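Before a colleague's protein record goes any further, I have to sign it off. What it holds is a sequence and that sequence's fold in token form. My question to you is simply how this chain folds and whether the tokens agree. Thanks in advance; the entry in question is below:
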Amino acid sequence: MIELDKINTSAPDGAKKKAMNRELTALHKRLFSLQNVLYAEGRHPILIILQGMDTAGKDGAIRHVFSCVNPMGCNVKSFKAPTEEEQNHDFLWRIYPYLPAKGMMQIFNRSHYEDILVPSIHGTLSTAAIEERYHFINCFEKQIQASGTVILKFFLHISKKEQAKRIEARKQDPHKKWKYDKSDEREAKSWEAYSRVYESILQRCSPEIPWLVVPADQKWYRNYYIANRIVEQLENLNLKYPS
């Protein structure tokens, strides 16, 4: 049973910011090289899913982890509240057009998991309908994995105290104020409810494609952790340039 309040949100003891930033620089070089081979070989689609509480750092992770990659081989899609057109279709309908092609990396900033998370918190769907969505998501991920897609799922795990600090920063910092929305503080009051739903998602959704829980209170460690895991996964693919 996953209990988020028992999982550390901070960098592990002994991790130092300067050392991790040096490691990240080395990982950037390796990721750039691996992406070139991935694109040239054209065999593996890579799907990277980022989820987390508001202010967990999804935007920042994308900016800092993927600053080294060739944009010709990497796309980012941010999933917000469904549009009127999207609501007229099955909830996964809006996901399919953004699945990666072979040789491409696709990053989801939020994802199909929002379609379990938000209805669970706000009570807009019945329990039975939400249970069906768990089933459909598991089937969906197994399907695209079976077709060759490599899926990496990251949950950016921050503390309640760190979230409050970041919300306040959004209100004060002129470079972050555009991100602030009054709903941020309203949603923050549902911290415990969000935590319980995320625990269920982490436990139940495609256990064959495990979630990676990222200690994300320190941005420098978050960036290192994500980059390191992506490089490890790409190295495990034994990528080769075509002859």
User: Anything to note?
Assistant: The first strand starts at residue 46 and ends at 52.
